[in-house]
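INFO  loader      accepted 1 record
INFO  loader      residues=511
INFO  predictor   begin
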Amino acid sequence: MPNFGTNQVRNMVAVGAVTPTSVRLWFRSEAAGEHKIDVFGPNNQLVQTAKAVVRPGNLTDNTLAVDIAGLAPGQGHSYRIERTADGTPLGSGLFETFPAGPAATPEVFSFAFMSCHQPFNSPDGTLSDRSVRMLRLAPNVLDAHKAKFVIMCGDQMYADSPGTYSLFDPHYTDTKLYPPGRGSILQWSAPDVRQAYQQHYRTYLAMRELRHVYANYPCLPILDDHEIVDDWGSDPAHMTPQWANLRQGAFAAYHDYQGSRIPYAGTVPPASYHYAFDYGRIGIFVMDIRSQRDITQGRLYGQSQLDDLTAFLANHSQATHDAVFVIASVPVVHLPEWLTNVGAAIVGGRIDFPDHWSYEKNIGDRDRLLKLLHDHQVANPRQRMAILSGDVHVGVGFAIHWIGDNKPILYQFTSSAISNRLKRTEVFFSKLGPNLVQTINCKWGGSARGVLLGTNGGAQSPPDNNPFGGLNMGIVEVKKVGDHSTIRFKLIGYESDKEFSHSVMFDSHEM
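INFO  predictor   done
INFO  writer      dumping tokens
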């Protein structure tokens, strides 16, 4: 097996944000210059051609995102990107424009979400065949479920892993990154940090199966901690001037390789990477709980993001949208409060306890979010609502029962990890925490019970199924039933100690 960094992506294409009449296509080229983008409609008819120039000496590592407009709603398209000068192909793929509106939404459709892509062994940095298995399965899973898009729910690149290839290991940065002898990455300039992170992205995107997913499905990202450093924002040191250049460079590289696939308005990179979109009769709000996180202020997200989520929910009532999904890279309900607080007191930041919503300094923002969701559900009882998450390296399904008469259930589904395989002992402890969640008491007076979902809608699954400790991908199916829709969750993966197979490990919970 080649060592970490030996294989790096040179040319690559990806589908970003899609609307009923447009698509944002992203590419990385090994050479600057003019590039041609051809988009084809039904019967392979050429419908749009665009030119895009990668400027020499750019700071984006020859990455670029281009908007193609004037497309027909709800239709399958293909595209091809090549360098104009010599016709070298960068790649090709498929996408489908979104439906023109709620009435045009398919009766049944699916989308996927995935997190935590880290398939390299530690400490030698070789590519783990067992970790790559879920990536090899992913195209088949997406095709079988006819997925319309994929939410890349954080940690699609690990700046700090595997250990001996971490950007925070001075031996690695002195011997593997050019020029050598610069010391700790915290002493580097922001442009140098950006280049180092870009190199990590090229390594993490080198797997052919993963590039297939990016090329053939709208892959809509949000950052989490490892795209910067483990538990970013949950360590007070991250707020100090010593980390300022690292923050600037890491966020710029995230924008180059992920964030630019979303057409943010105003300043680029934006102050916060949250965004929202509709697919017909469903609405999705993707939270950013990293760029504004500051544990010294007890902040997980900024006020402007909460305002945007409030406005989003106000515009997404049950009269216009059958289901609403909130993406939070770290699950809102995962560990009980007492465990995060006691754990943080004993081990500090060496384990992820301060990173969770239930940690005492994060409770304020957790409760503000839960009150907003609770009030929306009470006002819209026939609308389905679910939180989708990643980060925690286990797949989990929760029903969050608001305490009170006849209140709707808030669901939370976590898919993690796609390729970051835990050791057997780590799986054991990672699965304990969700089993300890019981009552969630909010400071605004509301409360809820967290109940692990059964594989067929029962109250409790067998321990091996929920939580699930193998590599996995999440699928959400939305189905029109009369005047409303149901949502169905599937967790698809394999057990790390069994023969590779295509299995539904958390099966079809329908609401």
